[in-house]
Structure formats: structure tokens, C-alpha cells
Design goal:
Layout (H helix, E strand, L loop, with lengths): L1 H35 L2 H8 L10
């Protein structure tokens, strides 16, 4: 009986660790996506991030 309980506990801890790691990775991916696909970055990539010379 003790072996079954320890197995259940070990599996539960493992699942919790995997879910925690998944949340961390998902958060990092969202931050990277926001950094690379922000509106400012898209304007710079399109060459529209700076004013034309006649507006300077």
C-alpha cells in the first residue's frame, strides 16, 4: 500500500513540475512574441518608424 501511495505522490510531483515548466516556457514565448511583433518593431521593419525628412 505504501508503494502505491509513493508512486501516486511521485507522479503528482512530476506532473506539477511539468506544468510549471510549461507555464514558464509559454510566458517566455509570449514575451518574445510581443518584443518581435510589437507595432513599433513592425513600423521599423517596414521603414516607417522614422519621420520623412520634410517633417523633421
Amino acid at each position: 500500500m505504501t508503494g502505491i501511495l509513493s508512486m501516486i505522490l511521485a507522479v503528482g510531483i512530476l506532473v506539477a513540475l511539468i506544468m510549471g515548466a510549461a507555464v514558464v516556457v509559454f510566458d517566455l514565448l509570449l514575451r518574445i512574441r510581443d518584443r518581435f511583433y510589437s507595432s513599433e518593431t513592425q513600423l521599423k521593419r517596414a521603414g516607417l518608424g522614422h519621420y520623412p525628412h520634410w517633417q523633421a
